[in-house]
Automatic annotation (TrEMBL):
It comes from Sulfuriferula plumbiphila. SUPFAM superfamilies: Multidrug resistance efflux transporter EmrE. Pfam families: Multi_Drug_Res. One of its GO terms (cellular component) is plasma membrane. It is a multi-pass membrane protein. The chain crosses the membrane at residues 52-71, 78-98, 104-121. It is found in: Cell membrane. Belongs to the drug/metabolite transporter (DMT) superfamily. Small multidrug resistance (SMR) (TC 2.A.7.1) family. This is Uncharacterized protein.
Length: 123
């Protein structure tokens, strides 16, 4: 895989991970809510105007464009598994930013993911 292909794949993965983190920050800001007929409009307005939510959606849009560019250069059977790097990034960032648990089991899973991506990248 060429350097440009790697950059596109990793950029797509990181943008997707960033989108998830921004959406989580946005929902933390809005708070817990339930969708029902009575609060659909107020909650919808809160979500639609929350800067983190908007940033997360923007990251998703950009990540789709970058991902399409990556898929034009890389086999999908190689590119798609690389999305699992996002799990690693999100687990570590969620621990750091939101204080989420990073248990031994999660760390073991992260190790398996990293090893799997390493094996795929070698082919």
């Amino acid at each position: 895989m060429s350097a440009v292909s790697w950059i596109l794949v990793l950029s797509g993965v990181l943008l997707n991970a960033c989108a998830q983190l921004l959406l989580k920050a946005g929902t933390n800001s809005v708070g817990t809510f339930a969708f029902n007929a009575g609060n659909l409009l107020p909650v919808g307005i809160k979500l639609a105007t929350e800067p983190h939510i908007l940033g997360g959606l923007a990251c998703y849009v950009i990540s789709v464009v970058v991902w399409i560019m990556a898929l034009s250069r890389v086999e999908v059977s190689l590119a798609y598994p690389m999305l699992s790097i996002g799990y690693v990034v999100n687990a570590l960032a969620a621990w750091w930013l939101f204080g989420e648990a990073l248990t031994l089991e999660r760390l073991a899973g992260i190790g398996v993911i990293i090893f799997g991506v390493f094996l795929l990248a070698r082919t």
